[in-house]
TrEMBL record:
<protein>
    <submittedName>
        <fullName>Pimeloyl-ACP methyl ester carboxylesterase</fullName>
    </submittedName>
</protein>
<dbReference type="InterPro" id="IPR029058">
    <property type="entry name" value="AB_hydrolase_fold"/>
</dbReference>
<feature type="domain" description="AB hydrolase-1">
    <location>
        <begin position="20"/>
        <end position="113"/>
    </location>
</feature>
<dbReference type="Pfam" id="PF00561">
    <property type="entry name" value="Abhydrolase_1"/>
</dbReference>
<dbReference type="InterPro" id="IPR000073">
    <property type="entry name" value="AB_hydrolase_1"/>
</dbReference>
Length: 257
C-alpha cells in the first residue's frame, strides 16, 4: 500500500475492452471469494479485484475512509469509471462510494445485498461487538456463518468464507466489526444517490436474514431492480455462481449495450 492511500488489488485486463468491473469483497472475504466471477467476467471486461484485508489500513476504520481508499486505488490504476460489484456487507460500502464519487460509478451490482439491518441482524451485530474481546474471533465468525448460512446446500460457501476469515487475525476482525454500525446508523444518505446510477441486487431466496429487507428498502432507490435465485442462500455468487454470472452479464449487456 503506497502511503496508506489505496488498497491492494488484482488486475485482469481484457484485450480490446475499455470497460471495468471493480470487485469489493465482503467482510472476512478476499479476492478468492470472487474466483468464479473473475474467471467468467475476465472474458468480457477489465477487472480490478480489491484485497481490503491484505494490507492493514493505518488508524481506525471509517466508512468514508474506506471509500477514499477505493477511490485512491482506482486513481492508481488509471480507472476513471467502472461498474462496482459488492457482496453482503460491502454492498453498503459500494452504495456509500456511489454517493461520494458518483462520477466514478457506471452501475452497482450487489450480491446478497444488505440495505437495512433488522432487529435480528442488529442483535447479532451487538453480540459480535460485545463478545469480540472475550471469545476467539473465529468461534464468533463460525457462529455467524452458520446463522447466515444454515442449510446443507450453503456448506461450500460457508466453508470458503470461514477459511478466508482465518487469515484476518484478531485485530483486523475487530476493526471491521466496529465499522459495520457506521454503515447502517441512518439510511438518509441513500437519498443522495444519483438517480442515473443503475443498481442491481441479486439474492438467493433462502437468504432469510436479508432478502425481505432488501426487497422492501430497495424501493427507495429509483433505478434499482432485484433478481432472486431459487434454492440458494446468502452467498449466491458462490453457491449458484453460474446463474449469478448469467444474471449479471445479461443485465450489463441489456442496460449498457
Amino acid at each position: 500500500m503506497a502511503e496508506g492511500k489505496r488498497f491492494s488489488a488484482e488486475v485482469h485486463l481484457k484485450d480490446g475492452s475499455n470497460d471495468w468491473i471493480v470487485f469489493v469483497h465482503g467482510f472476512g472475504g478476499s479476492a478468492r471469494t470472487w474466483k468464479n466471477q473473475t474467471e467468467f467476467f475476465s472474458k468480457h471486461y477489465n477487472l480490478l479485484v480489491l484485497e481490503m484485508h491484505k494490507e492493514k489500513v493505518h488508524g481506525e476504520l471509517e466508512l468514508d475512509k474506506v471509500c477514499r481508499l477505493i477511490a485512491g486505488t482506482l486513481e492508481h490504476h488509471n480507472i476513471e469509471k467502472a461498474h462496482f460489484m459488492g457482496f453482503s456487507f460491502s454492498s453498503l460500502i459500494c452504495l456509500r462510494f456511489a454517493v461520494l464519487y458518483p462520477e466514478k460509478v457506471s452501475s452497482l451490482i450487489l450480491g446478497g445485498g444488505i440495505i437495512k439491518f433488522n432487529l435480528r441482524t442488529k442483535f447479532l451485530l451487538y453480540l459480535a461487538i460485545t463478545f469480540k474481546r472475550w471469545i476467539n474471533y473465529m468461534i464468533l465468525y463460525r457462529f455467524f456463518a452458520y446463522i447466515i448460512l444454515p442449510r446443507s446446500n450453503h456448506k461450500r460457501s460457508r466453508s470458503i468464507f470461514v477459511t478466508e476469515a482465518k487469515k484476518l487475525g484478531y485485530d483486523e476482525f475487530c476493526r471491521w466489526v466496529d465499522l459495520i454500525p457506521q454503515t447502517n446508523d441512518s439510511l438518509t444518505w441513500l437519498d443522495e444517490l444519483d438517480d442515473d446510477i443503475q443498481v442491481l441486487y441479486v439474492s438467493g431466496d433462502e437468504d432469510h436474514l436479508f432478502l425481505k429487507d432488501t426487497l422492501r428498502y430497495s424501493k427507495r432507490i429509483s433505478n434499482s431492480r432485484v433478481e432472486i435465485i431459487d434454492n440458494c442462500g446468502h452467498v449466491c455468487s458462490i453457491e449458484q455462481y453460474d446463474k449469478f454470472n448469467d444474471i449479471v452479464l445479461r443485465y450489463l449487456r441489456s442496460v449498457f449495450a
